Amino acid sequence: MNNLPTSIDTTIGLLGGQNYICGRDLGTVAFLALTLGKPLFLEGEAGVGKTEIARALAAALGRRLIRLQCYEGLDASTAIYEWNFAAQMVAIRTAEAAGQTDRAALQDELFSDAYLIRRPLLQALEPQPEGPPVLLIDEIDRTDEPFEAFLLEMLSDFQVTIPELGTIKAKQPPIVILTSNRTREVHDALKRRCLYHWVDYPGFQRELSILRARVPQASEKLSAEVVAFVQNLRAEDLFKAPGVAESIDWARALVALDAVALSPDLVTDTLGAVLKYQDDIARIAGAETTRLLDQTKAQLAAVE
């Protein structure tokens, strides 16, 4: 793990090299998580870059990224391992046809490494050629409390127990990043095992830097108008405010249409790239689009 960054500025630079533009606050907590070997718990609205930091870290450090996408009903066995039942049944039929009668030997063979299907958590505990992987536990708030309780041991001792094989412990702990969109509160016991950071929407200049890094084909004027317009949208009473991910998607869509600046018709035609609910689109379309666009252009003219 000797390729880890040695300072906050180095950490920010590593992420920036992957076009992940972060503030010093996030750079600091990321550096501490890497240095102390602590899981990093990132909470915030959808689309603000929580998941992307795991991808950026993995790419910057040359590590494997292992992602566990959480969902309601996810249990420990699904997240750790399962047995290849189809292959086991074939082995049983083959043994029966061959007249094999040693049941203990057959059982040892069936529940051996050859029939084990490794799921993300088990993969993250095993040695990797390039070093400990980056384990992304994405949207932990979508799971339920029993799975959270299981993660307490996993994040404390970095080990799991498979009844047929015993306890498997990581020789070197993975770099763990957990994300939450805060659809429900995650238990304090889980948060205490992590370094915590709230990822907020970026300010104008940082979001503009992100857009320039991710969509360099967009003109300076278009990039500035997109960022200012999206930030004005976030101030509206919407069901789901657009995140940075939507800013990037919208800019790419506008570039594909050869746009160099925003216009009321262009905004109306492409609102589906930045707003994802029909009620929000209906609220902003028409006169509201013109008002927000005029507000955007006035704001940009005031800072020129």
Q: Within the CATH hierarchy, at the fold level, what is the topology of the largest domain? A: Rossmann fold
Mean pLDDT: 92
CATH superfamily of the largest domain: P-loop containing nucleotide triphosphate hydrolases
Largest sheet: 5 strands, parallel
* Oligomer description: single chain
Enumerate the strands of the largest sheet in spatial order, edge to edge or round the barrel: 2-5-8-1-9
Strand segment tally:
9
Helix content: 40-55%
Which structural class is indicated by helix and strand composition? Answer: alpha/beta
Task: Tell the overall outline.
Answer: elongated
How many H/I helical runs?
A: 15
Please trace the helix and strand order, writing H or E for each element: HHEHEHEHHEHEHEEEHEHHHHHH
Beginning-to-end CA distance, first to last residue: 46 Å
Unreliable stretches (pLDDT < 50, length at least 5) are none
Q: Give the name of the CATH architecture of the largest domain.
A: 3-Layer(aba) Sandwich
Q: What share of the residues does DSSP label as strand, in percent?
A: 5-15%
Instruction: Give the tally of structural domains.
Output: 3
| Rg (C-alpha, Å) | 24 Å
CATH class value of the largest domain: Alpha Beta
